[in-house]
Amino acid sequence: MPGGGVIPVTGTTDINRVEAPVTVKAYLIVAFAAFGGIFFGYDTGWMGGVLGMDYFINQYTGLEYPNVKFPGDTTSDAYKAYKKAFVVPQWEQSLTTSILSAGTFFGAIMAGDIADMIGRRMTIIMGCFIFTVGGILETASTGVGVMSAGRIIAGFGVGFISAIVILYMSEIAPKKVRGAVVAGYQFCITIGILLANCVVYATQHRRDTGSYRIPIAVQFAWALILGTGLAILPESPRYFVKKGKLDRAATSLASVRGCPVDSEYIQDELAEIIANHEYEMSILPETSYWGSWLQCFSGSISKPSSNLRRTILGILMQMMQQLTGINFIFYFGTVFFQQLGTISNPFLISLITTLVNVLSTPFSFVMVEKLGRRKILIWGAASMVCMQFIVGIIGATAGKASAHNPAAVKAMIAFICLNIVSFATTWGPAAWIVIGEIFPLTIRSRGVGLSTASNWFWNCIIAVITPYLVADQPHSAKLGSNVFFMWGGLCCISFLFAFFLVPETKGLSLEQVDKMLEETTPRTSSKWKPHETFAQTMNLAEKHIEVPVGTKTETV
Ligand code: BGC
Question: Which SUPFAM superfamilies match (predicted)?
Fold first, then answer.
C-alpha cells in the first residue's frame, strides 16, 4: 500500500480460511530454504574421509608416506605394519570429529534466542557468516589446534543454520505441503553427505594441501548461496507477530503468500496468527529472560499440550532419531564392512549406502502428507526393527558359521540398505517435521533449538562410543554385527515412543496444531478436525485490529 495506510484486520470463523492459497512463489521460497540441509550433510560428511588421506596424515604426524618408506613393496609384513600405524592419532581423530558437534550443540541452543531477537532470516545469515569464519580457519590449518578452533566455530554456525532453517520453513510453508518441504530439507542433508563423499574421493590421492583444502573450501559456496538467497527472501510473519510488529507481519505474509497485503486471505491468516499468539500469551504472559526459558518446561507432563510435554517430545524425538543407529552406518559403515572381509572396495559400499539414502528420501515427500507423520514414524520404527534384527541374525549365524562368507555379507548389505530406505522415508524427515510443528509461537524458537541440540548431542555420543562397541581391539566390546541387535532394540523403543507420544500434525496450520494438542491425546489425534478458529476463541472475528502498512508505525 504505497504511501502507507491502515488495514482493518478482522478474523474469520471459517476454518478453511485460516491460510491464504498456495502460490508458486511460496513453494520456491521454502524450497530455497531447504538448501540449508546441504550444510548439515556436507559438514558431517567430509571429516572422516580427510582423516584417512595420506597427505593429511603425513602433515599431522610427520610420518613418511608408506610407499616412499617401502618403495615397490606393498606385500611385506613390515609394509603392512607401517601402513596400519600410518594414521592420525586416535585422540586427534576423536577431537577434530566430535568438536564440531560441541559447536553445533551450543549453536543450536543459542540460535533460538537470537532468532527471537533479530529474526529467523538474520540468524541464518549470521550462521552462514560464523560458519565462513570457521571454514577459513579449517582451510588455513596445518595442525590440530587451528583445525579444532575452525571446527568448533564452523559447528557453531551449523548449529544456527540447522535449527533456524527448520523454524523458518515451518513458519512460512503452507500447511498442505509443510511436511513435504521440510522433507526437502532432509533430502538436502542426504545430498550434502553424498557430495562430501564424492569430493573427498576425488581429492584423496593428491599429494598437496589441495587434498583436504578443496573439500573444506567447497563449503564456502553453500554459505554464499544460502546467505545471499536469504538476504532476498522475506522474514517469517510469525516472528513479526511475536514482536508485535503487525505492519511488517502483514507485508511479509503478503510476500510469502504472493497476495496483495489488503486481500481478505492475508487478513484472515494474519488475524488467526495474532489471535493464537494472544491466546498463548494469555495462558503464559511474558516474563523475564530466565522466566521465559523456564516457560519451555512449564505445565504438567501428563497434558499433551503443556510446554513441558512438547519440549520433552521434541528432545526425545531427535534423541530417538539418532538412536536408530543410522549414523553408525554412515560414520562407521566402511570400517564395519572391512571387518566382515570379502569387500574389495569399501568406498563403493559406502557410496552405495549414501546413494540409497539420497534416492529413497524423495518418497517421503508424498508419504508425510498422505500417510501423516505419526503413521510413518510408527511403521518406520517397526520396519527398522525387522531389518536390523535380520542383519544381526545373519551375522550371528551364516556370517559366523564360515568366516568371510560372501553370500552372508551380501545379504547383510542388502538388509542394511533396506534399513536405510526405512529411515530415509520415515524417521529421517519426520523427526525434523515434527519439531517444527509442535511448539507454540511463545516458545517455538527455543523448543526447536533445544530439540536440534539434542540431535547433535546424541550424534556426538554415537560418534564417540560406537568404535568402542564394534572394533576388534583390546578395550572394545567387540560386538561386531551383534551391534545391530542393539540398534534394533532401540528401534523397538522408538516404535513405542511414536505410538504413545507422537501426535498427528498433518494438514493443520501451526495454530490448529495448538488446538489439536489441547483437545486430543497422541493416539486420538489423527481423527481430530479443526472446528473453531482462534479468532473465534479470542473474539477477534467481530472486532477490527488496525494494522498500519507501508509506514514505520509499529503499534496496533
Ligand atoms: C540425521 C542425521 C543423519 C542424516 C542421514 C538426518 O535426519 O539427523 O544425523 O546423518 O539424517 O540422512
Answer: MFS general substrate transporter
Q: Cα separation of 432 and 428, whole Å?
A: 7
Residues 372 and 255 in one domain: no
Q: For residue 31, is it within any domain?
A: yes
Residue 22 to residues 232, 255, 287: CA-CA distances in angstroms?
20, 12, 36
Question: Does 357 sit in the ligand 1 pocket, CB within 6 Å?
Answer: yes
Residue nearest to atom 3 of ligand 1 (CA): 327
Residue 264 is classified by DSSP as H
For a mutational test of ligand 1's pocket, the pick from 38, 39, 40, i.e. the residue with the most ligand atoms closer than 8 A to its C-beta, is 40
Nearest ligand 1 atom to the CA of 44 is: 10
The C-alpha cell that represents 417 in the structure block? 540398505
* 330 within ligand 1 shell (Cβ under 6 A): yes
Confirm or reject: Cβ of 439 under 6 Å from ligand 1: no
* Cβ burial 475-508 (10 Å sphere, 16+ → b, else e): eeeebbbbbbbbbbebbeebbebbeebbbbbbeb
Query: What is the number of domains present in the chain?
Result: 2
Please indicate, yes or no, whether residues 223 and 252 belong to a single structural domain of this protein.
Answer: no
**pLDDT tens, position by position, 60-72:** 889 998 888 888 8
DSSP symbols for 104-143: HHHHHHHHHHHHHHH-HHHHHHHHHHHHHHHHHHHHH--S
SS3 6: strand
Residue 553 resides in a domain = no
Instruction: Identify the band that residue 532 occupies on the pLDDT scale cut at 50, 70 and 90.
Output: confident
Has residue 187 been placed in a domain?
A: yes
pLDDT at 556 over 50: no
State yes or no: pLDDT of 17 exceeds 80.
no
Classify residue 548: in a domain, yes or no.
Answer: no
Kindly state the average pLDDT of the residues 466-490. 84
Ligand 1 center to 464 CA (angstroms) = 16
Do residues 100 and 245 share a domain? no
* Smallest CA separation from ligand 1 atom 5, residue: 190
Ligand 1 binding pocket mutation candidate from 39, 42, 189, 356 (most atoms within 8 A of CB): 189
Range of the domain at 423: 26-233+299-528
Work out the average pLDDT over 376-405. Answer: 88
Which H/E stretch holds residue 171? helix 144-172
Domain co-membership, 460 together with 352: yes
254 and 305 in a single domain? The answer is: no
Angle, helix 210-232 to helix 37-51, in steps of 10 degrees: 170
Per residue in 114-144, pLDDT (tens digit) is 999 999 999 999 999 999 999 999 999 998 8
Whether 428 is in the pocket of ligand 1, judged by its Cβ within 6 Å, is yes
pLDDT tens sequence across 252-288: 998 888 888 888 888 888 888 888 888 878 877 777 8
